[in-house]
Amino acid sequence: MATVGALELPADGFDAVVFDCDGTLVNSMPAHFEAWCEALTYYGAANVFQEDVFYAMGGRPTTDIVVELNSEYGLKLDPAAVAMKKREAFLNRLGSIELIDEVVDFARSCRGRLPMAIATGGTRLVIEKTLQAVGISDLFDDVISADDVQVGKPDPEVFLKAAAILGVEPGRCLALEDAPAGIMSAQRAGMQVVAVPAPLNVLQP
After folding, report:
1. CATH code at position 165
2. What NCBIfam families does this protein's entry cite (predicted)?
3. Which of 20, 22, 64, 178 is flagged as catalytic?
4. pTM for this predicted structure
5. Are residues 61 and 147 in the same domain?
């Protein structure tokens, strides 16, 4: 299982916890990057998405990223088609995903004491299959996905919706996030944010 270094968590000051999924609860980012490469290659755009750019854009909906790639590289990729191919490629890699132990242990310690939700830029289908693959579906009260909001991260909508569903004011929610867009999203929602360090093996070949 993947580990993270020096995760600093507050002991109090919050009444609910909202987690990102990819890169926060599970070390799935390498699998997502491989899926991106497969999908873009399939549509004739191999090597346009560099790994460092991918990690910087983590947390954003797939279709939004395709739109930005089109703009950056003068491409005419169909965002919906690329997203579907990328989803298929990722689901074929579910077996490689690992829990990020320290974050999941924290979630387990909160279970039954505090309401908890997932606020993700991923689609509901992919996130639910991810959670099932690593056996943590039953930890969370709800999942708010890209399918449930009008605007993805870094907009605060997904975190605000999570707070509303949990019935807790955003300012009394603790958010755990790993990606810049997600951290900004949670901060804009007014939540207390803990930045999850990258798993030690996240950038390994």
Report:
1. 3.40.50.1000
2. HAD-SF-IA-v3 (TIGR01509)
3. 20
4. 0.88
5. no
